[in-house]
Design a protein that fits this description.
Layout (H helix, E strand, L loop, with lengths): L3 E7 L2 E6 L5 E5 L13 H24 L7 E9 L5 E10 L7 H12 L2 H5 L5 E5 L3
Parallel strand pairs: 5-6
Antiparallel strand pairs: 1-2, 2-3, 4-5
């Protein structure tokens, strides 16, 4: 069964629907690539998918161990390259654990979990994943 459906609505905009939940997202081409930049671009979604996958898998591990991680923030920065072709060259993830009292063991477990999340393992190895856990 399909995961999503998408339609090109014109003016460099798409609308995608998650079939199981019915949730919809809109994408726009970025302003540096002929678009309006009024919504996430497809490459923004790739970078955001990396960060949210890291958070989600850390949450799964935390729940398994009875650790509370609610309130972790992150900042995601996507860096584009133009040569030899337009592509994502780097994704920077900066976590803010809001001074959570985490043991060294918890920090190691969470770091390893994040760095091996499904999206991190699926991205091309030429995309640098630069992660600052800020522990």
């Amino acid at each position: 069964m399909a995961t999503a459906q998408a339609i090109y609505v014109g003016e460099l905009r798409t609308k995608a629907k998650h079939l199981k939940s019915g949730t919809e997202i809109i994408t726009d081409a970025p302003t540096d690539n002929h678009g309006k930049g009024e919504a996430f671009s497809p490459t923004d979604l790739v970078a955001t998918a990396l960060g949210t996958c890291m958070l989600t898998t850390m949450g799964i591990v935390a729940e398994r161990h009875g650790w509370e991680l609610k309130g972790i923030n992150m900042e995601i920065t996507k860096v584009m390259a133009t040569e030899p072709s337009r592509r994502i060259s780097e994704i920077h993830i900066k976590f803010d654990f809001n001074d959570m009292p985490l043991t060294d063991e918890q920090q190691i477990t969470l770091k390893n979990t994040a760095l091996t999340c499904p999206v991190a393992r699926s991205l091309d190895e030429n995309i640098k994943q630069i992660v600052d856990f800020g522990f």
